[in-house]
Amino acid sequence: MKKWKISLLAIIVISSCQPQTKTPRPEFALAIHGGAGSIKPGQFSPVEEKEFADKLEEALKVGYKILENGGTSLECVEKVVNVLEDSPLFNAGKGAVFTNAGTNELDAAIMDGKTLNAGTVAGIKRVKNPITLARLVMMESPHVMMIGDGAEKFGEMNRVEFVDPEYFYTERRWESLQKILEREKLSLLDNDNDYDNDNDYKFGTVGCVALDKDGNLAAATSTGGMTNKRWGRVGDVPIIGAGTYADNNTCAISATGHGEYFIRNVVAYQISSLIEHARLSLEAAADSVVMRKLVKQNGSGGVIAIDKFGNISMPFNSEGMFRGSFKAGEEPVVAMFAN
Amino acid sequence: MKKWKISLLAIIVISSCQPQTKTPRPEFALAIHGGAGSIKPGQFSPVEEKEFADKLEEALKVGYKILENGGTSLECVEKVVNVLEDSPLFNAGKGAVFTNAGTNELDAAIMDGKTLNAGTVAGIKRVKNPITLARLVMMESPHVMMIGDGAEKFGEMNRVEFVDPEYFYTERRWESLQKILEREKLSLLDNDNDYDNDNDYKFGTVGCVALDKDGNLAAATSTGGMTNKRWGRVGDVPIIGAGTYADNNTCAISATGHGEYFIRNVVAYQISSLIEHARLSLEAAADSVVMRKLVKQNGSGGVIAIDKFGNISMPFNSEGMFRGSFKAGEEPVVAMFAN
Fold first, then answer.
1. Over the Cα atoms of chain B, what is R_g?
2. pLDDT value at residue B237
């Protein structure tokens, strides 16, 4: 009787330490985000809510089709992020927020879980799709990270699509900047917390993670950064391990939120390492970092995560996160508020 | 008898999983590096070898004095790196290598293990001590990373010391660039491996890790990057988690080597996470990443590491690494070749 109890306990303890596959592994799957922040019911009109939902679903379907046709997870995450970059709804590509100087400076990163190869760019001003430039850095150079004019020179050599900086102008983002500049003038914004409480200030970022039919994972993230950013500030997005990470042995992660906290906590890789070294499940690992470690530090934001079994986890500690997932043989799911 | 054997086995298994403190914890300690690479006996004249050893010892003594007088590990790592930056011997500050365009673009990072606060800069052209600018980013801004002109503007506001770009000129580094450009013209350098085999190409970087009397850890790294770099390439140094990491709960790390591999493997944080999550000792964790994981990928380089017990580990998989350590009450130790 006693032996029986001990054996049962042992099984429970051991199984709680093992990565769990809750449902049969889907043939392929992807998840996306369009930024985390103060996203609450009633904040957007029904028409606006539908616009967000439609664009997220469109992006999911683009990725699904690529994976269904046998495309790689790398191809999938790039093309899905392209859809979100080309939409003025999100803070990446066309909808990027403005810097203090009234310019747009874009960052992006992509990583291949099969090879651990990665490409990232920061401070990009004239490239239409920064994620495509990041993929070129990964594929066509021996380097991982390129910044500023140098990165754009590399883009020219590799015939990436350029746009006039005017392309990134949207009235909504311009007004956000004017509002913040006005508050700064009145000295209403004088510390970090004030920025934290500002809705538009760190709203945005887009990302995609995917598992393809061959079992390869990939992650991609693209952003315009923070409204009113200055001094060439770079957030977590182009930092491999912070905002973006992918490893076939563990998971693929794309993050969104208050970048400084995501850098200091090496959020994306920390989730991967909790799976690899502490043998947590994807959900437990992502929750441990996003819902506990970051919350303790007031580091707001969230992640999308997919593991090698096709499990998807999308925890966020902010009020909402634009997000969606689509598994082989299922229907696409999109959401923006807390459950 | 059987029970006795099982108990012994259990003790061995459990103790092998626990962080080990081999020697009594020193009151304070520090370690430094001046770059890893193809550093072999006979490569330098006895006079040159003495120059390197003297400068490393001088830097160690500067750090030791700060810690002995009750200074913080943060103060220590900055000031020690300043000494190495000001020397033309190492690829950081005054001795920085040249980019393809014949300019110098410097990167640096600093991290405080007590708070997880960090500051990093990349693409710096006119600041004498990039590590000091990185510390200002950490202390005087809400941000972690700043790049290029923006970072220098922030430096101006915070009265960091500027120099004419000419300051970074050294004949030795200029000749290294000319040699590589000549080989490029002759198409002798046409792939990544050729660069890997070039001695001067990725030679250098300086760093310091320290434990102070209050038990606080800190890490700092500064570099001129790779000779002949282009396209605004950024290596692992200013990437928190890759080339630099510090957490009072685990260890402080500063890395040197082929940066792209250090970014993809999140080397500095991976060592920290192996201590935290897999409960390895500092030495086992650092060896696991530098001597196994990186070796498998041909990612050459090394790290200096110190844990909260004052243990120091300095593994490298290249032929040599300029390095040194100094523990409270002991003599300074410097070395450059493999043991």
1. 20
2. 95
Residues of A tagged active-site:
205
Chain A environment of B148 (Cβ under 8 Å): 123, 147-148, 232
Residues B148, A145: C-beta atoms closer than 8 Å: no
Q: Where are the beta strands (DSSP E) in chain B?
A: 29-37, 106-112, 118-124, 145-147, 206-211, 217-223, 233-234, 244-246, 251-257, 301-307, 312-313, 320-327, 333-337
3-state secondary structure of B137: helix
Q: Give the gyration radius of chain A's Cα atoms.
A: 20
* Domain segments of chain B as ranges: 25-337
Bridge partners (DSSP) of residue A29 are: A211, A327
Tell me what ipTM this predicted complex has: 0.89
Whether B146 contacts A231, CB under 8 Å: yes
CATH class of A25-337: alpha beta
The percent of residues above 90 in pLDDT, for chain B, comes to 77
Q: What is the pTM of this model?
A: 0.91
Q: Check B147 against A123: CB less than 8 A apart.
A: yes
Residue A4 has pLDDT above 80, yes or no: no
Write down the pLDDT at residue B10.
Answer: 53
Asked if B147 and A266 come within 8 Å (Cβ–Cβ), the reply is no
- Dist CA B104 CA B123 (whole Å): 8
**DSSP 8-state secondary structure symbol assigned to residue B165:** G
Q: Please identify which of the residues B205, B223, B244, B256 carries the catalytic annotation.
A: B205
C-alpha to C-alpha distance for B103 and B75, rounded to whole angstroms: 30
- Position B57 scores a pLDDT of 98
Measured between beta carbons, the chain B residues lying within 8 angstroms of A145 are: 233-235, 239, 263
- The pLDDT assigned to A23 comes to 67
Any idea of the CA torsion for B96, B307, A258, A289, to the nearest 10 degrees? 140
Which chain A residue shows the shortest CA-CA distance from B267?
A241
Question: Which comes out higher in pLDDT, residue B86 or B9?
Answer: B86
**Number of other CB atoms surrounding residue B91 within 10 Å:** 28
Q: pLDDT tens digits for B326-339?
A: 999 999 999 999 97
Q: How far is CA A243 from CA A87, A98, A322, B99, B161, in A?
A: 21, 20, 16, 28, 32
CA separation for the pair B240, B301 (Å, rounded): 17
Classified as helix, coil or strand, A253 is strand
